[in-house]
Amino acid sequence: MKVSGIFGDKRRPRYKDVDIEINGVTYQQNLYEVSFGPPRNAVMLGADFLKNVVVDIDYRNQRIRFFSNRDEIDLVSNVPFTKQRETGYPIILVNLNDEDERWVILDTAHSGGVLLEKRVATQNNWFERFSSSSSLVMGVNSMGYHNVIDLPKIKLGPYEVEKVQVAVPEINRLFRITSQYEQEHSRIRGRRVEGLIGYEALKHFRLLFDYRSGSIELSQAQASE
Fold first, then answer.
1. Over 70: is that where the pLDDT of 2 sits?
2. Is the N or the C terminus of the chain less surrounded, counting Cβ atoms within 10 Å?
């Protein structure tokens, strides 16, 4: 299968119908062979798994729970969320420094903050207005350089996060990750996706996420006793 990453596409082996057991529940999944860096990073759970459960991620207290019975949890969506047409990517609307709003992929496997198309930064003159640096980054297929901009703030639903690092690839596009918003030979279009959002932007919150119904609830995480 062809696996899309932030630095391009690559054909990878796929292992079909593998049983995975989590907390006593067995799920049958297809596994794709990709690179996650250190050996301790062994598995990434994607849409094929997430459609079976409601995910409760408490970043502050480093806890995660899966609910296979949706009646067990009361989820009140407060962040604009949808699935990208064709790809099925879970995408949310992010306000960038009260200047711009863009749809980005909710990527809980992404360790950084916000990763954006270069054109978004240049259109807002962020390179001229804010400090930036260069950083070497590893994707699932290869490595490459990002320019990292210190953006004063972003907004996710009702919440504001200050001093967020926004990474901008030195290449002009994020390849297929953000380009699939229209169907070939058709007028049907989905949302234009222009980046990713990950751990560094979400680490202050508790995140309830129901991929199947298209609902996300973000709340302030409380320190555990």
1. no
2. C
Sign of CA dihedral 29, 32, 34, 39: positive
Q: Does this model's pTM top 0.70?
A: yes
Which of these, 132, 124, 116, 23, lies nearest to 68 by C-alpha position? 23
Residues 170-221: pLDDT tens digits? 765 554 555 544 554 444 456 788 888 999 999 989 999 998 888 999 999 7
Measured CA to CA, the distance from residue 67 to residue 157 in angstroms comes to: 23
